[in-house]
Amino acid sequence: MTVDDSGSGEDAQGADSGEDPLALRLEGLILGAERRYTPFQAARSAGVSMELASRFWRAMGFADIGQAKALTEADVLALRRLAGLVEAGLLSEAMAVQVARSTGQTTARLAEWQIDSFLEGLTEPPEPGMTRTEVTYPIVELLLPELEEFLVYVWRRQLAASAGRVVQAADDEEMVDRRLAVGFADLVGFTRLTRRMEEEELGELVEAFETTAADLVAANGGRLIKTLGDEVLYAADDAGTAAEIALRLIETMAHDETMPELRVGMAFGTVTTRMGDVFGTTVNLASRLTSIAPKDAVLVDTAFAEELIRTQDAPASEAEAAEEAAAAEKEGEEPPVYRFGLQPMWQRPVRGLGVVEPWLLTRRDGAL
């Protein structure tokens, strides 16, 4: 690679290949290395087969690049590390591919958001006559080490929290198939909104909904599993926590005039966890309950209701609660305090799950 007075070797390479010189400079800055290897050369330098290198590369979410010289020393090191974990017996080959896939999917979304919503705003030319090109590189140069440190910090925090939940599991089987409360929160009439609102306005609404939901889920002890535009999926270790989150979501959104109505469906039971996501009949049931829930209301399944009753977060019935209160008053004692109320609804068939009996979850007076 030759270097002339017009710029770096990467700039010259960009001119030869038709790629934007600034894009190449940014790539070099972010990756910390210049392009040196074709995929074949990278695989050989890492000591792995081309087939395995391609599997890792695709799992991380990158397109095939033929035999272009586009890979760096960092790519070789990443291949070597993943392959080393397999060789040491710490990971199976299939698990190593899953590690690559889960990391790639998570960081791809983060990177897209940072470029679209963060860097785009920061790189607006500060003075007339300046181009975005002239300000992008120094801004990225300043932000990169700080964002990298913060990313590692948050990842370690999340890893510690997740590891803590795993080691508290009752047995090895529970580490994968666990009993959780799962909830879906869904904006009502979102499809109609997409036809009436401008794209920018719609994007702001979705971002506000996701931000509010994520904050409420985290603040009240739940875990946000994923967002799907007009819907969020979350989980909690116990039914009481999930119920509190659901009602707070309804209450918060109801006080925001810019937001459509919300509906929530929840179920409690065995859930399979894979790559940060949750699967199984419990998740499917929560989704189905969401689709039949009234506006600004929360529906739960029978197992969820029974769990709230077992933990004394809700009475078995309002009649029973009244009897308990009367008995306590007669004895001069404080009556039991329940956070939630449960009202059985009509049984109904739910596609793929048979007949279910939904329960309407409410907050009891004075329980906020």
TrEMBL record:
GO terms for molecular function: adenylate cyclase activity. SUPFAM superfamilies: Nucleotide cyclase (SSF55073). CDD domains: CHD. Residues 314-334 are annotated as: Disordered. Residues 181-290 form the Guanylate cyclase domain. Coiled coil: none annotated. One of its GO terms (biological process) is intracellular signal transduction. It comes from the Bacteria. Belongs to the adenylyl cyclase class-3 family. This is Adenylate/guanylate cyclase domain-containing protein. It comes from Streptomyces sp. SID7499.
